[in-house]
Design a protein that fits this description.
Radius of gyration: 20 Å
CATH architecture of one domain: 2-Layer Sandwich
Bound molecules: flavin-adenine dinucleotide
CATH class of one domain: Alpha Beta
CATH topology of one domain: D-Amino Acid Oxidase, Chain A, domain 2
Largest sheet: 5 strands, antiparallel
CATH superfamily of one domain: D-Amino Acid Oxidase, subunit A, domain 2
Number of strands: 11
């Protein structure tokens, strides 16, 4: 049985395994994409969220040194499917998109179809066994206008610290959580102010997060057509593709934008 915490005014009310109220000098809301802390502090969450489902699969025939991303209107409309190795023959296999792109389909059916029918992926996955299922929401619109309000700091998914291009949020949640902890500790020691947190986050990841949202908005327009996506990938050399995943705007972006505008 876990303990849930809910921010009520300036106090945290606990329920579940532990109960009671904590009057904290600082509250760090690292409580995920539906953050109760953000809602309790009346801080806006970004509305744009993705949905993901992932199987852990054993006995798959994969290259353990390669993380694979698959794009296409059939296998992952409006998002991508992935095979991320966890070992020699074990991998996380998933799909993520935005609800609007599902057009009534169940996300789990999209993943099952990918595993069963994708001409390349099925060769690797069809003999695999599903050993666990993970699912959840992923913020896809960058950070909300405020990630600090009075004595509340938001970190990780609660603060939209997720690359909109990939939905990857683990490294950013670690950086955001550490920064929030450092700033809170300095504040409690009387040597810092909580306003340092948004500035520090802006330096650490602000530009990359903004860029990732911008790139995703452009790619969204191309995802409606597999031919456009093929053209996009043909225009991006592998170093620029890598840079895109790290939130850097690729040099070819202007040409890509022209391509989209001319359609
Ligand atoms: C299926 C799936 C696959 C993913 N794969 C990847 C990947 O391969 N690489 C990657 O970088 N990112 C991935 N992500 C995104 C990644 O999981 C998140 O960005 C990351 O976990 C964010 O960490 P967090 O600590 O901010 O939030 P979370 O991991 O969501 O942790 C929040 C915690 O707060 C707890 N909590 C929530 N509300 C309360 C409350 N009221 N009281 C007490 N506790 C509460 C929750 O139980 C949870 O333990 C994936 C997401 C999904 C859904």
């Amino acid at each position: 049985v876990e303990t849930r915490a809910h921010l009520v005014g300036h106090a945290l009310r606990l329920s579940g395994r532990s109960s009671g109220t904590i009057e904290a000098k600082v509250v760090i809301g690292a409580d995920g994409p539906s953050s109760a802390t953000a809602r309790g502090a009346k801080m806006a969450l970004r509305q744009e969220v993705g949905v993901c489902i992932e199987y852990e699969m054993a006995d798959v025939e994969i290259d353990p040194a390669a993380a694979e991303m698959y794009f296409g209107t059939r296998c992952a409309p409006g998002g991508y499917a992935w095979i991320i190795p966890l070992g020699k023959d074990v991998a996380n296999v998933g799909v993520g998109t935005r609800p609007a792109y599902l057009q009534g389909k169940r996300l789990r059916d999209v993943l099952d179809t990918f595993i069963r029918d994708h001409p390349i992926a099925k060769e690797k996955l069809q003999n695999g066994e599903v050993t666990a299922v993970m699912r959840g929401l992923v913020p896809a619109g960058g950070m909300p206008p405020a990630i600090q309000k009075e004595n509340v700091l938001l970190a990780g998914d609660a603060a939209g610290q997720v690359m909109a291009t990939s939905g990857g949020g683990i490294p950013l949640a670690m950086v955001g959580g550490q920064a929030a902890g450092d700033v809170a500790a300095r504040y409690i020691e009387g040597v810092g102010v909580l306003g340092e947190y948004p500035s520090r986050i802006s330096t650490e990841m602000g530009k990359e997060l903004e860029n990732s949202v911008r790139i995703r908005q452009i790619v969204d327009k191309m995802m409606k057509s597999d031919r456009l996506m093929d053209t996009l990938f043909a225009m991006l050399p592998s170093d620029q593709m890598k840079a895109t995943q790290r939130g850097q705007i690729p040099k070819a972006l202007d040409r890509v934008q022209d391509l989209v505008a001319n359609r």
